[in-house]
Design goal:
Two copies of one chain form a homodimer. Chain A is α/β, with parallel strands linked by helices. Helices cover 37% and strands 15% of the residues of chain A. Chain A has a seven-stranded mixed β-sheet with strand order 8-7-9-10-12-11-17, with helices on both faces.
Amino acid sequence: MADNAALAKMAQKLRRLSIESTTEAGSGHPTSCMSMAEIMSVLFFDEMRWDPRDPSGRRADIFVLSKGHAAPILWAALKESGAIDDDLMTLRRHDSRLEGHPTPLVPWVRVTTGSLGQGLSVADGMAWARKLDGEQGRVYVLMGDGEAAEGSVWEGSEFAACNKLSNVCAIIDLNRLGQSGPTMHQHHAEVYERRWQAFGWDTAVVDGHDVAALKDAFAQARRSSKPFGIVARTLKGKGVSFVEDKEGWHGKPLKKGEELTKALAELGEANITLKVEPRHYEAEPKRAEGPIEIKPAYEKGQEVATREAFGAALAKLAKSAPQTVAVDGDTKNSTFSEKFKAVAPERFAEGYIAEQNMVGIALGMSTEGKVPIASTFACFLSRAYDFIRMAVYSRPKHLVLCGSHAGVSIGEDGPSQMALEDLAMMRALVKSTVLYPSDAVCAEKCVEAAARAEGIVYIRTSRPKTPILYANDEAFPIGGSKTLRRSDKDAVTIVGAGVTLFEALTAHERLQKDGIAVRVIDLYSVQPLDADTLRRAAAETRAIITVEDHSPRGGIGEAVAAVVGGSTRLEILAVREIPRSGKPTELLEAHGISADAIVRAVRKML
Amino acid sequence: MADNAALAKMAQKLRRLSIESTTEAGSGHPTSCMSMAEIMSVLFFDEMRWDPRDPSGRRADIFVLSKGHAAPILWAALKESGAIDDDLMTLRRHDSRLEGHPTPLVPWVRVTTGSLGQGLSVADGMAWARKLDGEQGRVYVLMGDGEAAEGSVWEGSEFAACNKLSNVCAIIDLNRLGQSGPTMHQHHAEVYERRWQAFGWDTAVVDGHDVAALKDAFAQARRSSKPFGIVARTLKGKGVSFVEDKEGWHGKPLKKGEELTKALAELGEANITLKVEPRHYEAEPKRAEGPIEIKPAYEKGQEVATREAFGAALAKLAKSAPQTVAVDGDTKNSTFSEKFKAVAPERFAEGYIAEQNMVGIALGMSTEGKVPIASTFACFLSRAYDFIRMAVYSRPKHLVLCGSHAGVSIGEDGPSQMALEDLAMMRALVKSTVLYPSDAVCAEKCVEAAARAEGIVYIRTSRPKTPILYANDEAFPIGGSKTLRRSDKDAVTIVGAGVTLFEALTAHERLQKDGIAVRVIDLYSVQPLDADTLRRAAAETRAIITVEDHSPRGGIGEAVAAVVGGSTRLEILAVREIPRSGKPTELLEAHGISADAIVRAVRKML
């Protein structure tokens, strides 16, 4: 498209703009931008087929900046391409969309980056969805060399190779210097190349400041039938003598005045404007959609684990709603996501035992219009917490996470498999919905609600079989609760969810025999929660006892405490000691979350 | 030591015991044990130099079972070695030490395993500490092939090579079958071998059922100057025709009766007893210890960030206490752990950008008698949450984690770098201590307390400089708090920590001018917290307002709500919306945690 001299000059212009905007902001990472200027110039003004007027990325190539701290040069490239017209000198200001690390406030940014090692996984998810839809646009992901130390990069490399994602092209900006010192392998490009090859990729090593060499490598990548990795040897701070390849310049802007002037003088003028010719691929991708509506069909008296019901609901979505996709981490026969695979194997991605990548690909799929549902044991979602946190900031339209095998009620496998922190982890996210069904009807309806809801929804399922509580047509709105037992004489309110709800119901029965009435609330929607009902219960009964198969901190107990605070006495029954192997009933008793424990707590309160 | 036929027979015996104990338990993973029987037999009865009477591992080789679901064969090997005398048939019972996955209830188990892909990192930490101390004993870690999909395995491989840990020998039990289906690479041993080589290891591929071949490989490993990886091709369920190499047998015991009888018959009798000859290495390792005592020396009026004070405290520990070691994830110039490195470079491990491995190695070091202090940006500790969760179950004597750059007060870098969930994450752990200093004096004393305390202690530090509040001799016991402003007329209590404490003090001043008295409490010990002081404040003032640079869920607000619930009105000021780049002061104001916001909240309450 553009000649090499023009591209080189544009690179120089992007460098100047990165320096100027960070100096103006008084913070940022100019030297990390300078190493990748030619890569950005070649990608945006030559290699990628895209339309600067259309951020949807349909029938076009897309770009993910994994090394998010280089945001200034992304903003500069978008500005020079005509894709945005923000003032680059507003970088990092509170009133600017041009944040310190990329966020989707700028619609060209699909996912928030800045926690390193996540870009490849989300690129994989996009590329996987594109293959599914017949979208010909490729996915380019630009990484730093430092972030290749993150294991998630190798999870992402594995997934790309395993799924033959020849539409993924990753570039390592091998600038040798990390934040606090040189990287492990400095300029040894062959180390990275050998690794990618060992993970099943095609590769090229180039001088990352050589426009012609970069063009060649990208052409090679287009011809490859495998994911393609380009290791581009570069210099951090390239082009300015006093920062180039120097330690101590990470995340440091140049000072206004002499420092800035000298740097710009060394870079030389770069009066160039390049027009990006809008280019699209021919084939129109198919993005079929269908209704998300789940009708449970259980009979009272049946015993069904909520994880099984999750699987049953997934099978229904697999059939009715082609926009849904499912991913799992080699636990599909335990989470029951295998039921989705049975119906729609082409829309099921096996993530193997790599939970970070699993969440990353799900997020990537969501940016391609999918409704992704990712599942594993709830405790193993803790592995992906940074990915989940970052996904919040990516503001996905849909992202459903399901964690099975919650709490001590899993029994004999012991603490390593028991999720006791997942409610806290998911509630603490700045934006999230947390659902915790107790019976199969509610579980299926939670899946429906989650697949319809905006943003990140977490569903917590349990291992043991539990009786059906609800009629098949019962509604479970997000933010609601169910008061299962109530009378005018209720002395205490018991709030539970999941397995503990059944303990609460048993406690109710036992106490009733002794003439003690207690209210029982099913808090299936842990976040948002039904504050009105809880406050009413606080006002109408003498105390609230929460009971949860979870840590006492950050879960149901504290959620309730935060909304009823001041209006009632509250006791939190939860798992306070390190659990061990044992039968589920033994463990509920040992940790004080059994029916007996509830009865004891009620008696003590009265 | 033992002849090959005897070792093969012992393997068969270990298989029988694994089958019998899981059948008796009614759950467990016999087929995952059966694939590795020869490996265990050769390791425990031939290769490893150890003393079954001494679980300390001093002057001896040690073993980590990364594939924790194979616990039954570990228990069997320990029993047959004479290292334990538990009844194997109590496996998975609540009254037994022989849990479903290994835990340190059995003293031979140094770290709890069962969340896959963690064993290598902890082995690295042990091996690193052993090199430091001159402990000649080697570290053997046995992994499954499925878990090689976890990126953390490659982080651990990288660390081992980078630190020349020739005392690490990892074995992959390449049994081809994961939990829910075949692994990605099935029996392609060369894939794993190529990867380890690409990560700088020496390797061997062997038939994992061939005792002689295993012996050779271990001998080769001893001669290598690099970490050594053995890829052992095996069959899951080896030795029993109807389960061998068959899908659908993961995590499934054989049924009592015909199934069990047939299996044992096929394995044949294995009446053998082998004695492990106690063997020790000659060199006595040096484990120097020194006093952990930190004396801050600040002057009132100074402005020092708590992260800087953390670094200053580390430098003091580096000097006085040779049992301390520090690790960091390429953020040492931001967390200030570089100050430790400056004093004691040999006791500083650079973890590069790989937080899972960083926590894993720290845990491994703790098992060698070290007091490890691991630091990175607080938000990136979320990356290691599964490792941290598992570390709790490993019951380490000491493990200090420090997260810097807490909350929106970091400013311009934007949400990706802001920890808003770390208090929730750390509080939710079943056992943990959480400290959150506001000034440099408190920060140094928190480091002292953390390094002395048992178990996992998290210290949250902040980016901005803050004034000195306390005298250098002030004491900060874990579980305490400081009431900085108080009068008999206090209308409201404000609870803060970190940057928000200073906002609370400013609010106090402004309100005082209007004749409104408020109490101000510094909750530097977030967990355990000073319930008495908080309850007294709840009784003596009309309401409590908590203010924190964190999510409203799982942090200070809910912690306070849980202890004062019922006795007072409570309002939680916290970060409720997705933050963006901006100046720290702008962000505190925008998210309603500034002095102005506190003043407004107090006025509204009254």
